[in-house]
## 1
Amino acid sequence: MIDFYTSSSPNGLKVQIMLEETGLEYELHRVNLSEGDQKTPEYLKINPNGKIPAIVDRDGLGGDEVAIFESGAILLYLAEKSGEFLPVDANGRWQVISWLMFQMAGIGPSLAQAGYFLNRAPEPVPHAVERYVSETERLFGVVDRRLSEAEFIAGYYSIADIASFPWLRIHQRFGLDIADYPNVGRWLEAISVRPAVERSLAVP
Ligand SMILES: N[C@@H](CCC(=O)N[C@@H](CS)C(=O)NCC(=O)O)C(=O)O
């Protein structure tokens, strides 16, 4: 049994989709971010970084209970546990890991900053908006070019797609027109109709 700690957010949605896709047994625990649940001493034992998502696998791969944090690490862990969405051949696996790291180090942080400066900053900061929105556009362009030559980001459906989908689907939040990225649009539609993704999006 896996205890899954989450809240409504793209990073939480990645893990939700992976759990639904793999069919691993899990129990969802809601973390109230505005109440500061993620900074309590009990939660910091699970994720020392004080953020969602995190999991505790009561039957860890090493035999004992294990806590995992950082959505990319959780996706890799669940891929190893389930044997799904991460190829066993070395070249395929490293392709997936390259695109997963690109999501974790590029898409996630840049889109989060773009969203903050566009929608939540207490005062307008035009230079920050310009910096992060133009980087967001560039990153969408990278994925769009990749998807012009492959059906899915690393060739076939993998944890690279599961990591990227929750961030790219909210393109409107960054003022982007998805018509400018037709391959991303096609890919978003294909993923959004997967039953596991529909179930994940239906969780309030
Ligand atoms: N790199 C981390 C980012 C996690 C993250 O930023 N979580 C946000 C929600 S999307 C959070 O918990 N924010 C609450 C806080 O910072 O106190 C991951 O991918 O797991």
## 2
Amino acid sequence: MAAGERVVVVGAGVAGLTSAVVLAKAGASVHVIAEQVPGVTSLAAGAMWGPYLVEPKDKVDEWGQRSLEIFRKLAEDPTTGVRLTSGIEASRTAEAPPDWATTLPGFRPCEPTELPAGFSTGYRFTVPLIDMPTYLGYLLRRLDAAGGTVERRRLASLADVGPATMIVNCTGLGAKDLLPDPGLRPIRGQHVVVTNPGLTEFFSEDTGLSPDLLCFYPHGDTVVLGGTAIDGEGDLVPDGKAAAGILARCAEVEPRLAEARVLEHRIGVRPTRSAVRVEAEHWEDGTVVVHNYGHGGAGVTLSWGCAEETRALLSPI
Ligand SMILES: Cc1cc2nc3c(=O)[nH]c(=O)nc-3n(C[C@H](O)[C@H](O)[C@H](O)COP(=O)(O)OP(=O)(O)OC[C@H]3O[C@@H](n4cnc5c(N)ncnc54)[C@H](O)[C@@H]3O)c2cc1C
């Protein structure tokens, strides 16, 4: 990738915007094309740093650790929407700690008195929480400051981007039809955003592969309550019954949430695949396409590591 080389990034979710920022910083002339700006699935994320519904483990660990390093630096600036927050991941059965959490600052098993009723094990640690609307706005401003441009447009094919010798495909679940990639499947997720009744710590239940999740993430004046993981469903219409279930589960663990006012429902569809795809493809006309999609429930967690690998694939030397 030569300095000033035009690169078109398709997609303006966390994968596309992070890739665009990394490429612009490396000297490329970056143009983003996306139907949604920012991507609605990225807007819907909680978001906590930590792998969930994503493979392969070795690459996920590498991309996740690199992203963690960058999120820690971003947390020093409150305008990014990233905060280092302490909290608890707990389980109703005896569970070993999640391996990704054991090296996080402040990691320790919880005392029984720290756990909500009905929970038998839990672990405390400090992790980046990311307020996605603020964070995606920050990425868009950073891209703009680096000279990048954004165009709202739906593509029927990657070949429709216009003149470009380098394309980065960050279309999330959109890649299922755009490429097509039959290996992608939707896992629908729903969050309820409420006013913050004074929470400063996160809570997350280790629910394994259940469709009903339980988590809450404070972001200053608001709290994001979760959640759901409905395999195979891809529609974005809020489900009232699911929202009521989320509110009831969260209020049972944190009674102050029962009084919180509902502000918003956020729905997204985790773009899930047997393995995240970060891979270069060389077209016969010389165009280089780097794919960066299929991040399941961990697209925020992996965003900086995958974006840097995308840049390396465009500029192998
Ligand atoms: C409820 C929920 C909670 C989550 N919580 C977390 C969490 O705590 N931590 C975490 O790391 N991850 C979490 N995730 C997962 C994370 O949100 C996703 O992995 C991530 O947002 C995927 O980002 P993306 O940029 O690939 O996709 P998207 O955000 O979906 O962006 C795709 C972009 O491509 C564009 N596009 C697609 N097709 C076309 C086309 N044909 N033409 C033009 N543009 C197109 C879209 O318009 C959009 O701009 C959660 C997800 C959900 C749903």
